[in-house]
Amino acid sequence: MTPPDINSPEEQARYRRGLEVLNAIDGGGAPAVMDSLGDIAPALAHHVVAFGFGDLYSRPALEPKQRQLVTLGILASLGGCEPELEVHIKTSLNVGLTPAEIVESFIHTAGYAGFPRAINAIAVAKKVFADRDLLPVT
Amino acid sequence: MTPPDINSPEEQARYRRGLEVLNAIDGGGAPAVMDSLGDIAPALAHHVVAFGFGDLYSRPALEPKQRQLVTLGILASLGGCEPELEVHIKTSLNVGLTPAEIVESFIHTAGYAGFPRAINAIAVAKKVFADRDLLPVT
Amino acid sequence: MTPPDINSPEEQARYRRGLEVLNAIDGGGAPAVMDSLGDIAPALAHHVVAFGFGDLYSRPALEPKQRQLVTLGILASLGGCEPELEVHIKTSLNVGLTPAEIVESFIHTAGYAGFPRAINAIAVAKKVFADRDLLPVT
Amino acid sequence: MTPPDINSPEEQARYRRGLEVLNAIDGGGAPAVMDSLGDIAPALAHHVVAFGFGDLYSRPALEPKQRQLVTLGILASLGGCEPELEVHIKTSLNVGLTPAEIVESFIHTAGYAGFPRAINAIAVAKKVFADRDLLPVT
Amino acid sequence: MTPPDINSPEEQARYRRGLEVLNAIDGGGAPAVMDSLGDIAPALAHHVVAFGFGDLYSRPALEPKQRQLVTLGILASLGGCEPELEVHIKTSLNVGLTPAEIVESFIHTAGYAGFPRAINAIAVAKKVFADRDLLPVT
Amino acid sequence: MTPPDINSPEEQARYRRGLEVLNAIDGGGAPAVMDSLGDIAPALAHHVVAFGFGDLYSRPALEPKQRQLVTLGILASLGGCEPELEVHIKTSLNVGLTPAEIVESFIHTAGYAGFPRAINAIAVAKKVFADRDLLPVT
């Protein structure tokens, strides 16, 4: 019962495949999170990339814009995921969702998870959009 | 401080607009839920239709397939929403999401909300798909 | 670092005080839950009564009807608490909340925790009210 | 499948009715939240007011103090709703709940949603009460 | 951006390593869940085994009894995870946690996530223990 | 229906027993939280100590290291419990869990509650470990 060596050629190949997916969709925020895990949980960073992006995100049944819509719904309704929402709002823009579509996902969330979750998610979006001069959203 | 009369012409017009949206997307499960509210919370049934569908769902910034992806992410990750998941898996099929796309939304959920939420949502999908002879999903 | 003996005179006095509170407000469902803990977690049953009712519920800053409103909001929004909701809907009736007030608490929940949580809570209320011939709610 | 025009006379009438309710109960915090939505999700601000306050909050089955008790229970137990808790603690004071009743709602929450949710909600209350010179609570 | 072929030699090796871990700890319930995914989401079953058990569970920093304690805390507090709790209560017994330790994990949960989550988890444990003639727990 | 006087000899004895448990395990953070409750909810501080530590934590069925593993799983998966996580990461170190075991609990959480909850919990651990010169974790 030993885990794989994350530095083995097989795991490094998995990691590279995940990183390719991540680089293809990423808005620039995720790598910083990955870096912050380096001195405390490098295996988690490995698995986020190798499993989260290489194994899951790469699957063709949903295209990136569709995956981001699912992700925005999940993160908004879980609550307490502001740092992850920020990363995924940037990623959503990067894969081609418009600011209006991102906002709409959160307005839609109001009906299923209530106004507070929706309003909190929109507050994160507002910060991201302001940094990128994307306000007002029309 | 009085609420609107849900039987007024204005509210009935709002309700009819919501019902039109609901009928356009519905897979057949929602009306049963609405009916079950009739003798205990008719105002809630009114607001689900008038607000949830007439005001929110009808907004053009996301098309129905996109809205369903957000909804599947929300309901799967909230947990304890099996009846609502059943309704929305049917609706998702009805608006044109494929069984593979619905399943993929839940597989994707595993990375953000964990395996249990994903597995529970897929168990609901399996029941819906079995009833409609849509198994196996390929 | 040893816990109190739940059979000591002091703990039995705490338990009796809690049981008095529970009996004063209870709609008949809680004791069954307590009984079911007897052969697996009697200490938990003791603490639910001694702490939950004797220490917390007995506090005069909120009267029972007010406490039940808080409780209904909590249980509806947590989700997955159908057995506890059933107990507390009965308790709410017993302390004098009307069926309309109970239902209204759940309709109100829709705005803050979304329609699914509200609808699920109302489904539990409907079952309790049907058993007691309290439908329709007007 | 088009949503209502939020600037139509009918929607403006709904909005005004909601705003009247909001002004009647508001402690001064909500409008700031509404304003912050103006350049990113004005429709959500409209719906919070028109639906949340005009359609739901205005219903007479619960009076404002009762509604606030339900709301405090919901927001405390959901977690991650600190900004909304702040608004609703102010509103609770404004409609006549005492600081002791507000605190008691959160102490009560400890039994149903655990100590962390209760302690976090009380930390928000402490900040609001300190700003208004309402400490200590007795 | 293509996912790994779960039937490739590399992925089959990952799967076998995970299955070895699963078989070493499993109480007999998990394979049934895995089987149920076969005709709807075989990739998810693959990832639960290859990632969940092969990559995560196999890590030596926590031994199986310790991992089960973390898992019991997570599943009890998430709520709505009754099927997964059942599997993991069986696994916990299998790796050597006593019924009293399992129950104690849930009693402990009461303080951090409230009585309802604790009581619901204990109800699942009671069912598992009854099937195995492990009641009463002393 | 009156609560116990928390200043009575019986309650003071319960409090002292809880404080003894708390002092035996505490990493130095909890008392600050308790102090902050003094002018707003002293009864809650009393119950956290008397019930949470005196009644629950003191129970011998799990030793402190085991209880902390359960607690870390609960707090990480609930989300929005960063202040409590900080206290309990310190307590975990104090009772003898290693930084690697604490981190591993959170990596394990990724499989059951998703990457965001795991990453957020590790961010809190990183802050605690940095303050105590415990980085990198190996």
Structure keywords:
73% helix, 138 residues, mainly alpha, homohexamer
Commentary on this structure:
The structure is a homohexamer of 138-residue chains. Chain A is an all-alpha fold and 138 residues long. Chain A has 7 helices and no strands. Chain A is elongated. Chains in contact: A-B, A-C, A-D, A-E, A-F, B-C, B-D, B-E, B-F, C-D, C-E, C-F, D-E, D-F, E-F. The A-B interface holds A 51-52, 56-57, 59, 61-62, 66-67, 69-78, 84, 100-101, 103-105, 107-113 and B 51-52, 56-57, 59, 61-62, 66-67, 69-78, 84, 100-101, 103-105, 107-113.
Radius of gyration of chain A: 16 Å
**Tally of extended strands of chain A?**
0
SS strand fraction of chain A: under 5%
Q: By helix and strand content of chain A, what is the structural category?
A: mainly alpha
Mean pLDDT of chain A: 95
Order of helices and strands of chain A: HHHHHHH
Question: What characterizes the major β-sheet of chain A?
Answer: none
The end-to-end span of chain A amounts to 55 Å
Q: Which stretches of chain A are low in confidence, meaning pLDDT under 50 for 5 or more residues running?
A: none
Q: Give helix % range of chain A.
A: over 70%
Note the overall shape of chain A: elongated
Assembly state: homohexamer
Number of helices of chain A: 7
List the chains of the largest interface with their residue counts. A-B, 32 and 32 residues
GO molecular function, one term (chains A, B, C, D, E, F): 4-carboxymuconolactone decarboxylase activity
Domain Carboxymuconolactone decarboxylase-like (chains A, B, C, D, E, F): 42-126
EC number (chains A, B, C, D, E, F): 4.1.1.44
Protein name (chains A, B, C, D, E, F): 4-carboxymuconolactone decarboxylase
